Amino acid sequence: MASSQKITSFSSKSWENRYLEEEEGDTETMFDVFDGKMREKIVLQRLIVIARLPCDLADRTELGAHYEKLNFQLSKLYMWDHMTGLLLIYPSCLLHVIESSREVLVAVLKDLKDMQQQSDGTLLEAPKVVFMAHNPQSRLFQQWSYKELNEDQVTEELGAKGLGDEEGSTETLVCFVLSVLQKLSQQLEISKAPPGSVLDETPELIVSQEVLDQLLAREELQSPQQYLQAYNSPVNISMDFGQVIRSSCLTTV
Predict the structure, then answer these.
(1) Cβ-contact 131, 47 below 8 angstroms
(2) Across-strand partners of 131?
(3) What is the pTM (predicted TM-score) of this model?
(4) pLDDT in single tens digits along all 253 residues of the chain
């Protein structure tokens, strides 16, 4: 009987301590839990960029190593700005999704601009900004990682059926990329496996290289340099009409 009372007393005290800890700590609301949102310490933004790989790039792992180093450097500069995302390195191009604060994404764009301006030994060519989302509801990825895709994985094109013609609009192609990434994120939540393993098992969740090649040929997509110029340009306010006009259009939502 004494043993039973002791257990009951311990259980009651532990629940009391847990309640007090939750009251004192920064806890999630029921709405956060129901909606599946992760409490952020930053205003989250999402950047999607693509680029061609140089024909003379012998080792594609150099790209992964470059962004691993950049991620480490940015994590030291912006301690609270956790960077997540996925870098997919195709045989002839790349697709990079980055999720973090505005400052981190601007730093990534500046790094892309610097690489583009290198005269020799560049790791990528003709980068384009495909999409920029401000304050999305949640992250697509819980950490940053990269994966090299082999020729067999990108030639199946299981997810690109119906988009292989030149008549597809840029908006259609961008929406297709976003749709595939969203499906990949949902599969990651279900499987709890790393993105590389999920893509090996479900190649239909790989954005087709053909779609990326079409987007790389679209003039309306801005380069990192053009995007940064527009980002840093002053806002022109018309006093007559109360309109706010930027010097160029941004690929944002």
Answers:
(1) yes
(2) 48
(3) 0.75
(4) 444 444 344 444 444 444 444 444 445 454 444 444 445 567 899 999 999 998 877 788 899 999 999 999 999 998 888 899 999 999 999 999 999 999 999 999 999 998 888 777 688 999 999 999 988 888 999 999 999 998 878 765 544 444 555 557 999 999 999 999 999 999 999 999 999 999 999 999 999 999 999 999 999 999 999 989 887 776 555 555 444 444 444 454 4
